[in-house]
């Protein structure tokens, strides 16, 4: 396919060319940041038995209905050493946080509310309802689905999988995303720059996004402004799932990325998108490999990574938009669908408000330090006044 296509058409084509990566079983620690290939269900209940929420004494509630009740302490049961037997009327068992509540007991008198002298316990307070007992399965029960297939494994997800007695998880293999820069002027961060040279900053930020979205970034370096140099970088990376060339995507004399990948056997799917920033974004395939070409300007690359790379990594159609009221007036976007870097916040009345960055130049990285969203402005949309509703794509958590 050639010609200018819409953002929605591009997303549809990306979804039609989803990677379809295989599943693999890995230890828990290796699953962080990956996507689950199968749901995670609890192998045990948590807690597996009624346990004490506090240090104190397990008793019959009916024994402590009046202040000053006196009970006989018959032993103790630390966590991991359950009491063998039952608690009878008039008896108490010394227990600790996490100790299993013994048979017959239904309440815990916390140690701060009791006085003990030898094997005699005096309860200072009266109790009307059972307290400080964590019942079986209050966190989750055996058989509960705790994590869904396709879900990104978070630190909390690892914790709950471990608590559910899983030592391994089935994950979708992380896609290897090869970031390939192009330009004789590019130098690594920390270099001494000569006139005309600039820092190649894109791989650092894009690599972090790729890891955040469940991929494995691979820095393929910087290709010179020659077809041979670009083809050599492609040929040296046979195990890449998604090539991510950054720059060299326009129609200038030195924009060689697309023809180099075409020479390497990649078939074009789309060649440019009616989006601002990011019109030169392109997409091709070769067997199981994909190549998504991004513009070289940092802001354009970042915006298009959120729009197109994330759904390609995740195998979806992009994420849902939310509505917010614009803090300021917004001009007509023009003939291309436009995405504005912006900050969404909750106002004093609990309403979502969004404020576009003042300068939307496609070379600027600094606005992303505060931006947590992109305002979507459809092509040929009218100008908007302050307070009007706009559609927003969240790219970072709402604070």
Task: Provide a quick synopsis of the model.
This protein is α/β, with parallel strands linked by helices and 399 residues long.
CATH topology of the largest domain: the name is: Molybdenum Cofactor Biosythetic Enzyme, Chain A
| Envelope shape | elongated
Class by alpha and beta content = alpha/beta
Number of strands: 29
Question: Would you tell me the overall average pLDDT?
Answer: 94
* CATH first level of the largest domain: Alpha Beta
- In the CATH hierarchy, the architecture of the largest domain is 3-Layer(aba) Sandwich
Tell me the radius of gyration: 30 Å
Main pleated sheet:
6 strands, mixed
Strand order of the largest sheet: 9-6-8-7-11-10
The CATH homologous superfamily name of the largest domain equals MoaB/Mog-like domain
Counted by DSSP, the helix tally is: 6
Summarize this structure as a short list of keywords or feature phrases:
399 residues; alpha/beta; Molybdenum Cofactor Biosythetic Enzyme, Chain A; Molybdopterin biosynthesis moea protein, domain 2; six-stranded mixed beta sheet; elongated
Textual characterization of the structure:
Strands 9-6-8-7-11-10 form a 6-stranded mixed sheet, with no helix packed on it. A 6-stranded mixed sheet has the order 18-15-19-24-23-20, sandwiched between helices. The mean pLDDT is 94. By secondary structure, the chain is α/β, with parallel strands linked by helices. It has helices spanning 7-16, 155-163, 202-212, 227-235, 257-263, 298-314, and strands at 4-5, 23-27, 35-36, 40-41, 51-52, 56-59, 69-77, 91-95, 107-110, 114-117, 120-123, 133-134, 145-147, 168-172, 176-182, 186-187, 198-199, 216-223, 242-246, 267-270, 272-273, 275-276, 282-286, 289-293, 322-326, 337-346, 352-356, 373-377, 389-394. Helix 1 crosses helix 6. Helix content is 16%, strand content 32%. It folds into 4 domains: 4-21 and 174-314, Molybdenum Cofactor Biosythetic Enzyme, Chain A (3-Layer(aba) Sandwich); 24-46 and 141-172, Alpha-Beta Complex (Molybdopterin biosynthesis moea protein, domain 2), CATH 3.90.105.10; 51-134, Beta Complex (Molybdopterin biosynthesis moeA protein, domain 3), CATH 2.170.190.11; 322-394, Beta Barrel (Beta-clip), CATH 2.40.340.
């Amino acid at each position: 396919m050639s010609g200018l296509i819409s953002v929605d058409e591009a997303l549809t084509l990306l979804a039609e060319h989803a990677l379809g990566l295989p599943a693999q079983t890995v230890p828990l620690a290796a699953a962080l940041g990956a996507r689950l290939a199968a749901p995670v269900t609890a192998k045990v209940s948590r807690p597996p038995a009624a346990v004490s929420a506090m240090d104190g004494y397990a008793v019959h509630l009916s024994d402590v209905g009046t202040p000053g009740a006196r009970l006989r302490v018959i032993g103790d049961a630390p966590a991991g050493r359950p009491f063998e037997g039952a608690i009878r009327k008039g008896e108490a068992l010394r227990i600790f946080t996490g100790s299993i509540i013994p048979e017959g007991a239904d309440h815990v008198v916390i140690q701060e509310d009791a006085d003990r002298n030898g094997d005699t316990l005096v309860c200072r307070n009266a109790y009307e309802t059972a307290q400080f007992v964590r019942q079986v399965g209050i966190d989750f029960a055996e058989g509960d689905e705790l994590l869904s297939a396709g879900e990104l494994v978070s630190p909390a997800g690892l914790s709950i999988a471990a608590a559910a007695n899983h030592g391994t998880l089935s994950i979708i293999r992380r896609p290897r995303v090869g970031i390939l820069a192009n330009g004789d002027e590019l130098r690594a961060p920390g270099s001494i720059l000569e006139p005309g040279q600039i820092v190649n900053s894109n791989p650092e930020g894009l690599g972090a996004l790729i890891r955040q979205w469940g991929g494995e970034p691979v820095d393929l370096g910087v290709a010179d402004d020659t077809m041979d140099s670009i083809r050599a970088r492609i040929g040296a990376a046979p195990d890449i799932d998604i090539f991510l060339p950054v720059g060299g995507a326009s129609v200038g004399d030195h924009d060689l990325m697309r023809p180099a990948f075409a020479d390497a056997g990649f078939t074009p799917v789309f060649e440019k998108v009616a989006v601002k920033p990011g019109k030169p974004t392109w997409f091709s395939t070769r067997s199981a490999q994909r190549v998504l070409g991004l513009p070289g300007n940092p802001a354009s690359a970042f915006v298009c990574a959120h729009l197109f790379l994330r759904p390609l990594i995740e195998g979806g159609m992009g994420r849902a938009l939310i509505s917010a009221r614009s803090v300021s007036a917004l001009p007509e976007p023009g003939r291309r669908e436009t995405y504005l870097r912006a900050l969404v916040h909750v106002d004093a009345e609990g309403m979502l408000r969004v404020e576009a960055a003042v300068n939307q130049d496609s070379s600027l990285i600094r606005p992303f330090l505060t931006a947590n969203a992109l305002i979507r402005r459809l092509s040929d949309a009218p100008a908007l006044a302050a307070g009007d509703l706009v559609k927003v794509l969240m790219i970072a958590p709402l604070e």
